[in-house]
Amino acid sequence: MRWQGGRRSSNVEDRRGAGLGRPLAVGGGAASLVVALLVMLLGGDPSVVITPSGGRGPSSDYGTGGSGVPDDPRQAELKDFVSVILADTEDTWPGLLEPHGVEYVDPRLVLFTGAVRSACGFQQSAVGPFYCPPDQRVYLDLDFFDELDRRFGAPGDFAQAYVVAHEVGHHVQNLLGISRQVQAARQRASPEDGNALSVLQELQADCFAGIWAHHAQRERQILEAGDVEEGLGAASAIGDDTLQRRAQGHVVPESFTHGSSAQRVEWFKRGLTQGTLEACDTFGAQSVPRRRR
Predict the structure, then answer these.
(1) 281 Cβ partners below 8 Å, 6+ apart?
(2) What's the rounded Cα separation, in Å, for the pair 273 and 215?
């Protein structure tokens, strides 16, 4: 990606080294399978996922601006990169939402190490990057990008940009009122139907990430050869079917919460090629058919 000359966002909040530290190691068996799944689920509101609320892991030995702890040089460039991508989303979304009568409010992006407190509760990095609607913040442990590369075979800066753009997509859903509608509907739905609604919300965030890439390329020519393939690879690597097959050897479609690899690739591509909110109506398209009882 051509990102080095981009504007840096002023909405990055660095809490690395703030004292919560890393979570305690999880043992083998079912618990480790759950963590293996959660690590890669690019989530919306993490209150949907139950995570440990007590205890602290060992303190991190590197950290954060404002904490007095020297920054990890391995992550310095990643922090800079994330700031540029966030700024680019800030430059993209206001003009897209204005015709719909919605004012774009910049989200804040919180960098943390191991665990973090948010308006959605205490969360550990095992939940992956997440967006919290009540405080309008995206939360990201930069170590997630290493997991994306080494464990799941989705390397590259555009794959990382897709992660940030997906979470900002959840912020757009929040501003449009979609998040509240989905939450209300899930409370009335059966567990299976609630999962299906969650899938539709996640696929739409994938599509919104594609919208950002479409306009960033058209207006600022950020993409280089191979970037689109990186984004598609990341979308495929985090499909529920791929994760379940890796963790437990079989797939349980009714338990999907984010969509299959094929669905995630399809909706990201749709946003990337068409670049409109109308193209991302996953709910109207009924991408995840209701199961017969």
Answers:
(1) 204
(2) 10
Among 1, 168, 166, 170, smallest CA distance to 80 is for: 1
Q: What is the number of other CB atoms lying within 10 angstroms of the CB of residue 177?
A: 10
pTM of the entire structure?
A: 0.81
What integer is the mean pLDDT of 232-254? Answer: 72
The pLDDT assigned to 17 comes to 81
Amino acid at 246: R
Beta bridge partners of residue 117, listed in sequence order: 122
Query: pLDDT digits over 43-91, tens only?
Result: 455 544 433 333 333 333 333 344 444 567 778 999 999 999 999 999 9
φ, ψ (nearest 5 deg) of residue 132: -110, 110
* Secondary structure element (H or E) that encloses residue 137, with its range: strand 137-140
- Distance CA(224)–CA(145), nearest Å, equals 20
Residues 133/174, Cβ–Cβ less than 8 Å: yes
Distances from the Cα of 251 to the Cαs of 49, 70, 188, 193, 200, in angstroms?
Answer: 19, 44, 26, 18, 18
Q: Return the residue matching tokens 């306009």.
A: 215
**Pair of tokens at residue 7:** 């504007």
Cα angle vertex 216, ends 135, 139, to 5°? Answer: 25
Helix axis angle for 157-176 and 178-188, nearest 10°, is 80
Q: What is the pLDDT of residue 235?
A: 76
